[in-house]
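Kindly inspect what follows.
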Amino acid sequence: MDNFIAGLGMIIIVLLLVILGPIITIWALNTLFPSLAIPLTFETWVAALVLGGIVRGNIRKESK
């Protein structure tokens, strides 16, 4: 039961990060660069999500 609750908690955290991450990115850009004036719409949210995925890239941890 504890593993189920821990797994459910992790899923909820990941979903919140995926949903709120692009919103926070747009907010931060608008705060740092007011001349951008990026509107918070579904299209800009998806664009920020895609851009975050591209910039993140592929990170691999090498085992020794």
Observations:
- The CA atoms of residues 1 and 7 lie 10 Å apart.
- The chain has one domain: 2-54.
